[in-house]
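pinging the channel bc i need a second pair of eyes. not urgent but kinda urgent?? the chain im working w is below, pasted from the shared doc
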Amino acid sequence: TDEEVEMVVVGYPRKLDNTASEALIYVNPFVKKLKKEFPQMGIELIDERFTSKMAFQSMIQGGVKKEKRKDKGLIDKVSATIILQSYLESQSGFNNNF
C-alpha cells in the first residue's frame, strides 16, 4: 500500500539561551519552501539542541569505533533519529527523558 506523507519533522536549531541559531538562515527558507510546495502537509519544528552530543554518547554506548564517531554525516543521521524519536514520544505521551 502507498502511504501519504502527512507530517515532516524538522530539527530547529536554537542556541543554549533559546535564541535563534545562525543555522536558521538555512532552516527557515527550507520550511517556507516546504509549506509552499506542500500546503496540506504538517510541519513540526523540534528543538535540536544537544542532539549531536546525545548522538555521540549513543554511538559510544553502542560500541561505535572512535574513527567512525568522527564522521559528521553519521552523527547527523543519529541526531536526526533522536529528533524523530523525540517527536514520536511527544505524540504518544511517552517520555524517555530526552
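so The chain has two domains: 1-49, 51-98. and The first helix runs from residue 24 to 37. — does that match what u expected or am i reading it wrong
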